[in-house]
Fold this protein.
Amino acid sequence: NFFFLFLLSEGGITCPTTEVANSVQRTGGVSAYQVGDNLTFTCSEGFQLNGAQQITCDSSGQWKPQPPQCVPIPDDKIQPSPGSCGVPPAVSNSNVHLADRFITKTSFFSGQKVYYNCDVGYVAAGGRKSRLCNNGKWTPLKLKCQRKLCGSAGDVQNGQFVYTGVEFGDTATAVCDEGFMLVGHATRHCMNNGWSGRNPVCEAAVCEDPPEVSNAEITGLQHEPYTYKSVIRYSCRAGTLVGEREIWCTKHGTWSAPAPECKEITCPSPNVPNAYWTGNHNQKFQYRATIYIECNMGYVMSGPGTVYCERDGRWLPELPKCQRRRFVNQWG
């Protein structure tokens, strides 16, 4: 709908200047037209005329017929014109992409601009965002895009982040101090909207209560929790301790070794032919029991005269042998 002014002057009835969007018609600075004057319209590239191409100023001070409109030509009906350009060529390794409104177009008239945006995770760092179709050739794209900056991923109590970088695509991996264990996801990723996820937590490594051992006493007990480097010691009330006497809580929240055992270890009776032993009056030869072996009269010993019972149930160094003494006839 157009609103027209009736301009009355000393020369008679006139028609006002009218403009049609997206047309190449020019008024030439004329502010009013006389009855009988004509205006002819031509649409800009990519637009088509909807209405009369020529209108006339009539005696009522109005343009007849009404001024036309220049509306966009549907993409499937655009005919390539001399100097037009095809689809803009891709710009490799630039981290930019053509704006959505230009993606479906296949032809562009000379003088038309297209616009670009930075890829996800990138921000403009200088240069124009547009390029121009100039007589069948596209001008170079000057837009520069750089990775977004995420900055610090935050603090980790009792630990720290190890970074590959602080820009889009980089990672921050939490590493706990010795004696602390990670709770949560260790790695955060620098995304388009900042660091992914939440900061993990480093909690003190805690071991379960030390295992009880039959016939053993535990020293070094403390009130829970048993944290990193807590040490406990086992001693046997009866039998021989087999295993580690001391164990400690490791940085992984486990004890450094299985609990030992208190076993009754005995060695077999030291049966040495032609010998007798002294030094142990018990019926059982337990670990560390020591005996002294002597040969009967007329026999000589080959091997150690003192042996002891080892923790594996053997006599060490080894049981001796008693061999009959050889007599030499000195009188020939």
About this structure: The first strand starts at residue 7 and ends at 9. Residues 221 and 309 are 32 Å apart (CA to CA). The chain has five domains: 7-73, 96-147, 159-202, 206-263, 266-324. The domain at 7-73 is CATH 2.10.70.10 (Complement Module; domain 1).
